[in-house]
Amino acid sequence: MIVNAVSVGRFEPFDLDTLTFDAHLEHLNQFFIANDVTNVDKQKAILITSLSSENYQLLTNFFSPDSPMTATYSELCTRLRDHFVPEKVEVAEGNRFYQRNQHAVESVKDFLADLRHRAKDCNLVQAKLFILPPTEGKRVTTYPFSRFCGEQN
């Protein structure tokens, strides 16, 4: 049997400071597709080896007294996602969206990208309606929802 020792692409160990866990899983799943890794035991092994020592210890704590090796790939992903991607509270995320202002040195492009991300987190499908584009000499600004509802302060 000939084994292809060359893999397509690479991925870094999971680091929450540089990447979200969901993004890491997406990256990992694309690695599986690119390298025809369909065996779930291999997928589980690659997931486990993609964790830093600290995150692997955390995973073993989740499954204690059993070993993570006894869990399925899906169970590992679920436990890690539950820890690294806690559910967001829509009201709090909406508040974060409406409190966001463009920083003086921030480009309009970066500001709008962050607003789109925040809108997704607070389930504001029509969030673009609440973003005013830059006018001559002014930065992009956001306004409280109440202003768009015709409420007076």
Radius of gyration: 21 Å
How would a crystallographer describe the biggest sheet?
A: 2 strands, antiparallel
Q: Which range best describes the helical content: under 10%, 10-25%, 25-40%, 40-55%, 55-70% or over 70%?
A: 40-55%
The SSE string, one letter per element, is HHHHHHEEH
Count of separate DSSP helical elements: 7
Write down the overall geometry: globular
Low-confidence stretches: 144-153
| β-strand amount | under 5%
Q: What order do the strands of the largest sheet run in, or round the barrel if closed?
A: 1-2
| Total strand segments | 2
Q: What distance lies between the first and last C-alpha atoms, to the nearest angstrom? A: 75 Å
Backbone structural class:
mainly alpha
Write down the overall mean pLDDT: 75
Q: Tell me the count of domains.
A: 2
How would you explain this protein's 3D organization?
The protein is built from seven helices and two strands. With 153 residues, the chain is an all-alpha fold. Helix 5 runs antiparallel to helix 6. The radius of gyration is 21 Å and the shape is globular. The protein has two domains: 64 residues, no CATH class; 59 residues, no CATH class. The C terminus is likely disordered. The protein is 49% helix and 3% strand. Strand 1 and strand 2 form a beta hairpin. The protein has a two-stranded antiparallel ribbon with strand order 1-2. The longest helix has 14 residues.
